[in-house]
Specification:
The chain is an alpha/beta fold and 371 residues long. It is built from 17 helices and nine strands. α8 runs parallel beside α9 and α16 packs antiparallel against α17. GO terms for molecular function: deaminase activity; hydrolase activity, acting on carbon-nitrogen (but not peptide) bonds, in cyclic amidines; metal ion binding.
């Protein structure tokens, strides 16, 4: 790196000590069951956003990059809701992604994500990645995806968490790029650990035309890949309708704004479309002022299938276990309700039926155990 670059200097010790440990389990209230031992599936986790804060600092030190303050000091609850939003999030994500420049860094992210989910009681992780972002450093999009898939298989063996991959196109890129990714995803399609199980569409949902990506999703569908696009977070019910019509999802990434149209919500529930609800993400992005405003109880009361997710723990400073713990604290959910949420996450996953039956049995044992 050029010594004259103002943004690339050796990091100080204070920065290196700034990384929080996001896998520390919250205290279990008296008379309640330990959430770590509750089997659950994690279905909404982005590749770069899964990075541990300490890994971010290590990569920056290796490359002599000074991390911007918005990556070192991220606490959404101290930021006014009208100062949060997509731009603040995206510049942080881009800064972190620029540090992932080697096969070893990519493997480390997958491995540590699986380890962190194992520490939180997850039994299934479906990680979303756009290999385009990392292709320049490892020889192309094909090697980039192969690295992620290979490490997912290895991490599955070592952690006991089934790690599968979702290839996601970006709304801010041309729809033809999405077709290229869909063809790549189809080559690695399967239903086992380390294989590609779905095709997604992420990034700012206010950008692009949803229907322009339908050809890519048809390519993926012919290969047996599930449609797993984002929608209904930054925009409301009209956006959800477009996604449903054009992309025919099996699950909807976020989808929380669907509650603004009860008839539409009932339609999606009847169609058995699951929702990947990421409450802390919604708060960070200013969609809701605080956790209590997230319409999770409404989804549950209307009979929706919900899988809680962490989205981007690196930036939101909250992993999957914390979503369950906060839901218990804020909404006073019973252990039975939390067990049902865990079951729904298993049901919404793309795991085999035999794995689902096994995990359901473990959830039932948890629910029937003594607090």
């Amino acid at each position: 790196m050029p010594a004259a670059s103002a943004s690339r200097t050796r990091m100080g010790r204070a920065e290196a000590d700034a990384a929080p440990n996001l896998t520390i389990a919250p205290a279990t209230p008296e008379g309640r069951r330990d959430l770590v031992s509750l089997p659950k599936a994690h279905l909404h986790l982005h590749f770069t956003g899964a990075m541990r804060p300490q890994t971010l600092i290590d990569l920056a030190r290796e490359q002599s990059v000074r991390l911007p303050p918005h990556l070192l000091d991220i606490d959404p609850l101290t930021v006014p809701a009208d100062s949060r939003g997509w731009f603040r999030f995206q510049r942080s994500y881009d800064s972190a992604r620029q540090l992932v420049r080697s096969e070893s860094a990519m493997r480390r992210i997958v491995r540590e994500a699986a380890e962190d989910d194992a520490a939180e009681g997850s039994v299934r992780l479906e990680m979303q990645v756009d290999p385009t972002s990392y292709a320049p450093w490892v020889g192309g999009i094909t090697p980039a995806l192969e690295i992620v898939c290979d490490e997912a298989k290895s991490a599955t063996r070592d952690t006991g968490v089934e790690v599968a991959i979702i290839v996601a196109a970006s709304r801010i890129r041309h729809p033809l790029d999405a077709r290229t990714l869909a063809r790549l995803a189809a080559r690695y399609a399967g239903d086992g650990a380390g294989e590609v199980v779905g095709f997604g569409l992420s990034n700012d949902e206010r950008m692009g035309t949803t229907s322009a990506f339908s050809a890519a999703f048809r390519i993926a569908a012919r290969a047996g890949l599930a449609s797993l696009p984002h929608g209904g977070e930054l925009l409301g019910p009209d956006s959800v309708r477009e996604v449903i019509t054009a992309l025919k999802p099996a699950r909807l990434g976020h989808g929380v704004r669907t509650v603004e149209d009860p008839e539409l919500l009932d339609r999606l529930i009847e169609a058995r479309i699951a929702f990947e609800v990421c409450p802390t993400s919604n708060v960070h992005l200013g969609v809701y002022h605080d956790f209590s405003a997230v319409p999770l109880p409404e989804f549950i009361s209307r009979g929706a299938t919900v899988a809680l997710g962490a989205d981007d723990p690196l930036l939101f400073r909250s992993r999957l276990l914390d979503q369950y713990a906060r839901a218990r604290e804020v909404f006073d959910f019973s252990d039975a309700t939390l067990a049902n949420l865990a079951k729904q996450s298993i049901d919404a996953s793309l795991a085999s039926e035999s794995s689902k039956r096994k995990w359901h049995g473990r959830i039932e044992a948890w629910a029937s155990s003594r607090p």
